[in-house]
């Protein structure tokens, strides 16, 4: 596979104020993403595919120890199949009521989902795992990534004759779940952020002024700058509140009989948390349908932490990827706002703020212009 730096679209575009950004593997993907946006030459484009691939590459770096070129055909087919499966999973009934998968005609597309998952496992994930196993068992030095760490744990448990749920057989599905969960949510939130920036140019400008004050124009924002960017953090938080990517979280099940608010929930009952209702509760949030980042900034200018801000769920089953997602959102948005001003197409058409509710809550397709800032 070719080095992505040699073939990534827009590699020759002049960004970062004409300077090559300072080194740092942690922001390599953000750098490539910004370069690709710059290559659009301020023409209207749909950010969906580019953003999904870029964010997915962050997960690939963690899971596989490598990133993929944006034009890599195998990776593009993998992403296409993943998108189809995420769309198909909108039919949650198929998972909650198992017998519907046997209804003639497959009205919930359950068979298509299963075939798509099998395709992803067999043609993309399993070959990568197999190479890791061959390197690990053959004495070679495998990549320092999640798969290697997982396999080493399996080998150690086997050597200790320890019964464990961490098995080599379960690894492909673990990888698939981490990939889908880690890619879809952050990419979709970035799209929602741009949609709201287009509707609220004043918010976009306030974020830019804060970035310019804290970072300037000669270097890219880093995680060390995050504590000083209260308004950008508040804006990101408001995007997560007003347009939660997983409004119904994911189904859980009670492990024992539970008494709650006068009701008894038997052991094994499927429970679907309605996160959207909490994040839009008028008793908690004044004007809940209004986009207002200032609601998260206190009189002292510091970020307010609300107990009922739960876009990543809450409790012991809170999303494990919350920290990674918040980090990604900060690095991407800070770099994007630092270098571009987002405008609607020449016809002034603004994106709809009514999303599409499926397995995730996504914005309707839209295009916009990224105008380089001077």
Automatic annotation (TrEMBL):
Q: Does the keyword Kinase apply?
A: no
Cell compartments where the protein resides: Endoplasmic reticulum membrane; Microsome membrane
Report the Gene3D superfamilies cross-referenced here. Cytochrome P450
Q: Record's Pfam families?
A: p450
The Swiss-Prot or TrEMBL record lists the needed cofactor(s) as:
heme
Q: Which domain of life is it from?
A: Eukaryota
The protein's matches in InterPro entries, at most eight in alphabetical order, are given as: Cyt_P450 (IPR001128), Cyt_P450_CS (IPR017972), Cyt_P450_E_grp-I (IPR002401), Cyt_P450_sf (IPR036396), Cytochrome_P450_fam2 (IPR050182)
Instruction: List, alphabetically, the GO terms of the cellular component aspect.
Output: endoplasmic reticulum membrane
Q: Where does heme bind?
A: 319
Principal subcellular localization: endoplasmic reticulum
What does the sequence similarity comment in the record state about its family?
Answer: Belongs to the cytochrome P450 family.
Q: Can you name this protein?
A: Cytochrome P450
